[in-house]
Amino acid sequence: MNIEAFIAERRPVWQHLDHMLKAAEAAGDQVSRKELHELVELYRRTCSDLNRVQSNTANPEILGYLNQLTGRAYRFVYRAAHETPVWATFVHLISTEIPATFRRERLAVASAASAMLLGVIFGAVAVLINPSNGRRLVPPMFFTERPKDRVERIEKEEERIDNVEKALFFSASLYTHNIKVSLLAFSLGALTIIGTILLLFYNGMILGAIATMYILDDVPLFFFAWVGPHGALELPAIIFGAAAGLVAGRAFLMPGNLSRAASMRRVLPSVWRMIIGTALTLVCAGIIEGSFSQFSYHVFPYGLKIAVAVLLFTGLMAYLFLRGLSEET
Amino acid sequence: MRELTITTPEHVNIRLEPAGSGSRFLAILIDAFITTAIASVIYTAAVNIFPRLVAAAIFVTASFLLTWGWHVYFEVKRHGRTPGKRALSLRVIDARGLPVTLYQSIVRNATRMVDFLPVFYGVGGLVSMLRRDRRRLGDVLADTLVIRESQPLTYRGELGAERHYNTLRTPRVLRLIRHKISLEEREFLLAVCVRAPKMSPAARYDLMEEVAAKYREKLDIEAESISGENFVRDLTAVVFSRMR
Asked: Is A268 close to B79, i.e. CB distance below 8 A?
């Protein structure tokens, strides 16, 4: 085969295909029927050229060029997913898919929740046995003074959040941080499983220890009114995100008789919905934590805050457990 | 580096070349720079319109959305190329050779959290350097791949024309080449010639002599009068000027 003659002869076809692909990409994949037919034909011709070149030469330049060109055209011609309407997908995701995924992956959710619950129990029991254990379990940055002193100081001082601006800024910092933490929990779970379990246990332990310390110091209402309103959403969200990690981790680390890639593909629909669900819930929780949770009882009585917490939690659970249930059966 | 081979329904094998860690790192650096710049512009604009803390809230949200949304948006909507990747001719694709889907992109980017640890892609960079297909953890989980996709057609046909007085261009040598030099060896010979100018003179001389000695023996040619480099170049020119 005379390679120069071959290239000279076929080059216009390749350049035409390259040009068409570039134009299609620039136009957001919008091609007319006629163009599509032309593109497929050019793709087939280039494929057969690649075949000939592969068996007739080892020239890396020409092989590299034709491989990448055919690869690009292949992705264009054979892509499986068609354009999805973003807004409709989003509405459907919220209205049915997230609760359905939550129920489908209930085993993972239950495992994540029990890891955290075990942590809470461990932390609480440790503090009950010996109150000085609290100082050992809780990192010093969260533990600067006795709960009772802290409550007195906070409730005496002026409101920490005295305008919308502060609330907005604090909320934004909180939800971005929390989403990052839950993405970390997800990734750790997906890669190691045990990493997420430990992370949940550890956080549960701190929560349990702090809660018990506040209760022992006789200021339980303050604690529940302070943590409750956002915790009602935040804790389930983090458990949900970690459960996504467990689902992914199980598929990844224990693929059974599937290939690792095939196994991951099978759980991908559950996993991405859980990640999005977690992120959305954390945004809501962050906004509550940055504003409502921070007010003292002069503004919102403890009873009101705890009532809101209970309401939010019941609402979330009703949504997760009941939404779209009739359609499934 | 391991090439990814896709067999199309037309029974053609397309080989795609994974991108190296270096170019990927540079691409992410460009993307990080652009997103930071956009977030700063947003902040500067917001601080002039809103009170300082509201502007800060907008900045935090904007930079968050930019860091996480940027990659997902461009990977899904712009055929796997963020501006940084476009600048370096890289592309994210599904490991089956298809375009990356929204869901893969979300998982791939969520795992960025771990790949980013402990500082600026420590884990991701290390994993990618150790793996032959140059994937970071996010790529492994989402079954995606970053490929290098530049290669304009720069056929070095002049290699044959360059050597006018080529004593190796004889029917005997042509026959020997056909029987004794495999496709891989041809590729190797071309690579040696292409890369030689970039080597230090001493290394270049040693390498060329070594290669020449091997092929003199293999093809049973006693062209002792020409230097190793000239022999290799002549041989390569013959190999590539008349294939079959």
From this structure: no
